[in-house]
Specification:
- The structure holds two protein chains of two kinds.
- By secondary structure, chain A is mainly alpha-helical.
- Chain A has one domain.
- Chain A has two helices and no strands.
- The radius of gyration of chain A is 15 Å and the shape is elongated.
- Chain B has two domains: 36 residues; 303 residues, no CATH class.
- In chain B, 23% of the residues lie in helices and 28% in strands.
- Chain B contains seven helices and 17 strands.
- Chain B is globular.
- The relative contact order of chain B is 0.18.
- Classes of the chains: A mainly alpha, B alpha+beta.
């Protein structure tokens, strides 16, 4: 279990970084063509809320990864 | 310290790896949503009763002239109208007109086919698939030729959407009513009905309406009394479509049994600038419609008549998955026969 948490702790920020980036790309694609992206632009409030969450997640994960690597170096 | 640094890649390499993995995921999603062919299989809708039959408006002698007069007398607005062709047989009567409004940069050109049918089954759709029911995009003209269509226009290109209710010639292809799009249903009663999300309908409502065709694109253009809507449901469409002028395709109903297919050309300054949704709604009102619905537009907008393209498609059009068409020959008996065979 400890081994799992050890890897999880290292990989989770990267996972969050990748998935939030993918979501943001999908969101932008949907602006150009609603059929290109994963998400539906049907509810504009829901869409804005989602992009806000994922932007925060992306920036948070990015800063975390940078911070961890700076401290360890 | 030096040991841990030696085993650890630099920050830029880690971020680059994350970025490349993200690009790979985006690519896989694109392959799934855009490039992967989709398979469609229709399920026969249990429809009760026969379709409602209508009398054609003009009978006897001198049909062409009387039909033209009838159609033109129902039009409103200031458009210049030129009759391009007419057709009539025992099942349908059709008048095709070219209409222009405005001058110079503001000029709009659109084509209208007024179709009177004895039964809604005369209005047919075609889905372009291969032998394994995988949707193939083909031009409107080639699909029209395959169906031996008298008149054909772009449908709702449902292979590109993920939700909504799709019925084609009585076959249910999709029943996802969670869509925010307006849904247009041609019923066996010979009417055209719009289902809007705010009305909280279910798939049972659509089945009870005895759907012969159902389209998911939109938005709905008129309020049911023939007046253009004040606001359009563009939630699920391109966000800038309301204010932008594009080629448009629309279907409307004047009265049960009398339908209007309209194609507005666009993106060609001096010939036709295209139409916004409010302009398209006004056009459909001037055509005499009480209900009207927007279909796939832009480069997809193509109308064919008797084996040739009528309008001037933007960049010669594009391949699409489905068309709405009026067949040249008699279809009612064939369709009834095929439905009967399927029921058995």
């Amino acid at each position: 279990m400890n081994k799992f948490f050890k890897y999880f702790k290292v990989l989770f920020p990267h996972f969050l970084l990748i998935m939030s980036f993918v979501f943001i790309v999908q969101w932008v694609l949907t602006l150009f063509n609603p059929n290109l992206g994963l998400i539906s632009m049907n509810n504009i409030v829901c869409c804005l809320e989602l992009i806000l969450y994922f932007s925060v997640a992306f920036v948070g994960a990015l800063l975390y990864v940078i911070d961890v690597y700076r401290k360890k170096s | 310290m030096s040991e841990s640094k030696r085993g650890r890649p630099p920050l830029w390499a880690v971020l680059l790896t994350d970025f490349l993995i993200a690009c790979l995921v985006c690519g896989l999603l694109a392959v799934y949503f855009v490039f992967l062919p989709r398979t469609v299989v229709g399920e026969m809708l249990p429809v009760e009763g026969d379709p409602t039959y209508f009398s054609l408006p003009v009978e006897g002698e001198n049909i062409e002239k009387r039909l033209e007069d009838l159609v033109l007398s129902g039009k409103k607005g200031q458009a210049n109208r030129e009759i391009l062709s007419s057709f009539w047989d025992d099942e349908k009567q059709l008048i095709l007109t070219r209409n222009t409004l405005g001058e110079g940069k503001e000029k709009i050109t659109w084509y209208t086919a007024d179709v009177y049918v004895t039964s809604i089954k005369v209005i047919m759709t075609h889905v372009s698939t291969d032998e394994e029911n995988t949707v193939i995009n083909k031009s409107v003209l080639s699909q029209a030729n395959e169906c031996d269509a008298l008149l054909a226009i772009t449908g709702d290109t449902f292979s590109m959407s993920k939700d909504g209710v799709i019925v084609r010639n009585g076959l249910l292809y999709r029943n996802d009513v969670r869509t925010f799009n307006d849904i247009c249903v041609l019923t066996l009663d010979g009417t055209m009905r719009i289902f809007e999300r705010r009305n909280l309908y279910s798939i049972t409502d659509i089945k009870q309406a005895r759907a012969w065709q159902a389209f998911t694109f939109g938005p709905s253009l008129l309020d049911g009394k023939g007046e253009p809507k004040n606001s359009f449901n563009i939630a699920a469409s391109h966000l800038s479509d309301l204010s932008n002028e594009h080629p448009r395709t629309a279907i409307g109903m004047v009265e049960p049994g009398h339908f209007v297919f309209t194609l507005v050309d666009g993106r060609a300054e001096g010939y036709s600038k295209g139409a916004t949704f409010p302009e398209l709604a006004q056009i459909m009102k001037d055509e005499g419609c009480t209900v009207a619905y927007n279909l796939d537009g832009g480069r997809s907008s193509v109308m064919t008549y008797d084996g040739s393209v009528v309008n001037k498609p933007y960049k010669n059009g594009r391949g699409i998955s489905d068309i709405i068409y009026i067949p040249k020959g008699s279809v009612t008996n064939d369709v009834l026969q095929s439905k009967g065979d399927a029921d058995e």
